[in-house]
Design brief:
The chain is α/β, with parallel strands linked by helices and 636 residues long. 49% of the residues lie in helices and 18% in strands. The protein contains 20 helices and 18 strands.
Length: 636
C-alpha cells in the first residue's frame, strides 16, 4: 500500500501539492494525470524517495522492492541482453556466487546456490530478457550489440526492458511510451496488464492509459483527486462534475453545439465502411468527453484551404528509398478529404513515405503528379531543430506573413497556448512540448490542403493532444498521419494503409484488428527464430550459453545422486562400525563356552548379515560415486 498523508510539496518556489492525501492499494494500476507543470513527475519522485515532502508523510509497503526507469545508461560496453539481465540484481548476485563456488570447488555450496537460482527463475532469465527485447522492437542481431551502438531512443528502450526485468511489487513509469512505436506499445500494454504488483504510470497516451490502468489520480489546484476507472472513465466523471459549474456548463453547451453540427455534416458524407463507422463512434465519444476539456488552455483550428485540386497528389509505380536502393513500392492517389493513417513496424518505411510525399526525398522510380493547387503542410520531429531559437513564436509567423497584424498573430498563437508575453519571448528556453506546439502552429498558419504529419503528438500533453484531435476532425483538406497515438488515429482517419514487406497496401480492418495482426506476426517470428536457433545453437554464442545453462541444470540434477552417495556412505560407516564390534565380541574366548551357545549363534548370524549388507551398500555407493564422476567429467 502507498499512502500520502497531508502532503505539501514546493519546487523552485512553486507550490505543487498542498495538504493532499491519497491511498493506492496493492495491485492497483494507477494513471497519474494533470496539466503540464502540475507536479506529476515531482509526485512520482516523492513516491520513489528521491524527494521529501515539505509537510506530511509518505509511506510505501515495498514487498520485493521498487522498480523504476533510469534516465541514463552508464554500462555502454555491455551487450544489450546482458544489460537488461543486470536489472535482476538478485539473479546476478546468485550467478556471481555460483562462479565463485565453481572456482573454489565448493560442490556442496553449489547445490544450494543452484536451488536459489531455480527459485529466482534463473534458468528462464535469458529467454525472458530476449522476449522483452523482441517485444520492444530489437532484432536477434541487435540484442548482442553493445549498448553504445544504439541511439538515445533505443537506449531508453533498453532502460525500459531492464526495469521490467527487475523483480518488484511496486513499478513506477514516467512516459514509458516515449520513443516506442505502436508495435512496441501494444506489447508493453500486454506486459503491464499481466503485472501483478502496484503500478503508477505517467503517460500522455490515452489509449495506453485505458489499457493498463484501473485507477486515475488527477492533480489539480495542488490537490490529488482519485477516480475509479481508467482515463476514459475519469474524463466522463470529471465532465459530469464540471457540468455542475455554471460557467463551465455554458462554455460546454457552445462546444457541444459546434460538435453536433460537425458530426451531422460528416455523417451525411460518410459511407458504411468500417473505418467511417468507427470514426463516427469516435466523434460521438469526443462529443461526450468535450466537457472534461472545457478548461483546456488549447483550442485552435487549421484554417480552411484557399483552393483544392483533385487529385491533390498521385504517384504511379513509385519506388521509394535512399540513393538507388528502393525500400518501398506503391501506387497512391490522394483526393480532397482523404484521411489516411499509416501503420507498420518501426523501420518498415512509414517515415520514408512521408518524407517522399513532402519532397524531402526524391522518387527513385515511377511518376509523381502534383495537383495545380497542392499546398503541403509537413510536420516531423526533426523540423523542431530548424526553429530559430532567437526568434519568438510571433516572429516565426511574421516572417511567413509580413503584412499580418500583431493582434491577429497573438490571437492565433493563443490557441496553441502562447498567451501574453509567451507569444513574444524567444523560444531558446522552450520545452520540447512548446516547440512542437509552435511547429504545428507554423504548419496551420500556412493554410495547407494536404497535411503530412509524422508523430505529431510526441512531447504533447493530453490536453494538447485532445485539441489537435478536434482540429484535425474539422480540417477540410486531406491528411496522411503517422502516429503511435491510437486515439488520434482512430478519431481522425477513415482509411488505413499498412507499410510492410516493401509494399503499401490497404488495411481492411481497424486498430483492434491491427493489434491482432501484430500478435500473429510476432508469434510467427518467434517460431521462425526458434527453428533457426535450434539449427545453429551448437555453433553460436547462444548455443554456448545454452550449453552453460544445460550444465547448470545437470548440476541441479546431480544433487539427488550426491545426497544418495552421502547417505550410502553414512550407512556403510554404521555397518562397518557394528561389524567391528561384533568381531570384537567373537574374538573373546568366553563366547565359545557352552553357556554362550545361543549368543554365539546370534553373533555369527549378525556377522554374516553385516558382511552381506556392507558388500551391497559398498557396491551401491561405488555406483553412485561413478555416476557423480561421470557428471563432473561432462561439466569439466
Amino acid at each position: 500500500m502507498i499512502t500520502l498523508n497531508s502532503v505539501s510539496l514546493q519546487r523552485s518556489g512553486k507550490v505543487l501539492l498542498e495538504g493532499t492525501s491519497a491511498t493506492i492499494h496493492h495491485g492497483q494500476h494507477v494513471g497519474l494525470v494533470g496539466a503540464n507543470g502540475c507536479g506529476k513527475s515531482s509526485l512520482l519522485a516523492l513516491l520513489m524517495g528521491e524527494l521529501q515532502p515539505d509537510q506530511g508523510d509518505v509511506s510505501i509497503d515495498l514487498g520485493r522492492g521498487i522498480a523504476h526507469m533510469a534516465q541514463e545508461i552508464k554500462a555502454l560496453e555491455r551487450k544489450a541482453v546482458e544489460y537488461v539481465l543486470d536489472g535482476d540484481e538478485q539473479l546476478r548476485a546468485i550467478e556471481q556466487k555460483i562462479n565463485n563456488a565453481e572456482a573454489t570447488g565448493q560442490h556442496e555450496k553449489l547445490a544450494e546456490l543452484h536451488e536459489q537460482l531455480l527459485q529466482a527463475d534463473g534458468y528462464t532469465a535469458r529467454s525472458r530478457a530476449e522476449q522483452m527485447l523482441h517485444g520492444l522492437g530489437f532484432s536477434n542481431d541487435q540484442i548482442e550489440n553493445s549498448v553504445k551502438d544504439f541511439s538515445g531512443g533505443w537506449r531508453m528502450r533498453l532502460n525500459l526492458a531492464r526495469t521490467l526485468m527487475s523483480p518488484s511489487d511496486v513499478l513506477f513509469l514516467d512516459e514509458p511510451t516515449n520513443h516506442l512505436d505502436l508495435d512496441a506499445i501494444v506489447w508493453l500494454e500486454g506486459f503491464l496488464q499481466r503485472y501483478q504488483g502496484t503500478l503508477v504510470v505517467i503517460s500522455h497516451d490515452r489509449d495506453f492509459l485505458d489499457a493498463v490502468t484501473d485507477i486515475t489520480i488527477h492533480i489539480e489546484h495542488q490537490k490529488t483527486n482519485t477516480y475509479r476507472g481508467n482515463y476514459s472513465a475519469f474524463e466522463r466523471m470529471r465532465a459530469e462534475r464540471l457540468q455542475q459549474q455554471q460557467a463551465a456548463f455554458e462554455r460546454q453547451q457552445k462546444q457541444r453545439e459546434h460538435m453536433e453540427k460537425f458530426v451531422e455534416r460528416f455523417r451525411a458524407k460518410a459511407t458504411k465502411a468500417k473505418q467511417a463507422q468507427s470514426r463516427l463512434k469516435a466523434l460521438s465519444r469526443l462529443e461526450d468527453i468535450a466537457p472534461a476539456h472545457v478548461d483546456s488552455p488549447f483550442t485552435f483550428r487549421f484554417p480552411e484551404p484557399d483552393k483544392m485540386s483533385s487529385p491533390l497528389l498521385s504517384i504511379d509505380q513509385g519506388e521509394l528509398g535512399y540513393g538507388d536502393k528502393a525500400l518501398l513500392k506503391l501506387k497512391l492517389s490522394v483526393l480532397p478529404g482523404s484521411r489516411i493513417g499509416l501503420l507498420g513496424a518501426n523501420g518498415a518505411g512509414k517515415s520514408t513515405l512521408i518524407r517522399t510525399l513532402a519532397q524531402e526525398l526524391p522518387l527513385i522510380g515511377g511518376k509523381r503528379q502534383d495537383g495545380e493547387h497542392l499546398e503541403v503542410g509537413y510536420f516531423a520531429q526533426h523540423q523542431l531543430e530548424s526553429l530559430d531559437p532567437h526568434a519568438s513564436p510571433a516572429l516565426h509567423l511574421q516572417r511567413i506573413s509580413p503584412d499580418a497584424r500583431e493582434q491577429e498573430l497573438r490571437n492565433f498563437l493563443g490557441g496553441f497556448g502562447f498567451h501574453g508575453d509567451k507569444a513574444t519571448e524567444t523560444i531558446e528556453g522552450f520545452s520540447g512540448g512548446e516547440q512542437a506546439r509552435l511547429a504545428l502552429a507554423i504548419v496551420a498558419w500556412q493554410k495547407p490542403n494536404l497535411l503530412l504529419l509524422d508523430e505529431p503528438t510526441n512531447h504533447l500533453d493530453l490536453e494538447m493532444r485532445h485539441a489537435l484531435t478536434m482540429a484535425l476532425q474539422e480540417f477540410e483538406g486531406a491528411m496522411i498521419l503517422v502516429s503511435h497515438d491510437r486515439n488520434l488515429l482512430r478519431s481522425t482517419t477513415d482509411e488505413l494503409l499498412l507499410v510492410h514487406d516493401g509494399r503499401v497496401d490497404v488495411f481492411a480492418g481497424d486498430l483492434d484488428d491491427y493489434s491482432d495482426w501484430l500478435t500473429k506476426q510476432r508469434t510467427q517470428a518467434t517460431e521462425q527464430q526458434n527453428e533457426g536457433s535450434e539449427e545453429v545453437a551448437a555453433h553460436s554464442a547462444r548455443g554456448r550459453k545454452d550449453q552453460k545453462r544445460l550444465a547448470a541444470e545437470r548440476r541441479n540434477a546431480m544433487r539427488p545422486l550426491k545426497r544418495q552417495a552421502e547417505k550410502l556412505e553414512s550407512q556403510l560407516d554404521k555397518l562397518q562400525t557394528r561389524l567391528a564390534a561384533v568381531e570384537d565380541e567373537l574374538a573373546d574366548s568366553s563366547i565359545y563356552d557352552a553357556a554362550e551357545k545361543d549368543r554365539l549363534k546370534n553373533l555369527l548370524a549378525e556377522q554374516t548379515d553385516l558382511t552381506k549388507g556392507i558388500n551391497n551398500t559398498e557396491e551401491e555407493w561405488m555406483t553412485a560415486l561413478e555416476e557423480l564422476e561421470a557428471f563432473e567429467r561432462e561439466l569439466s
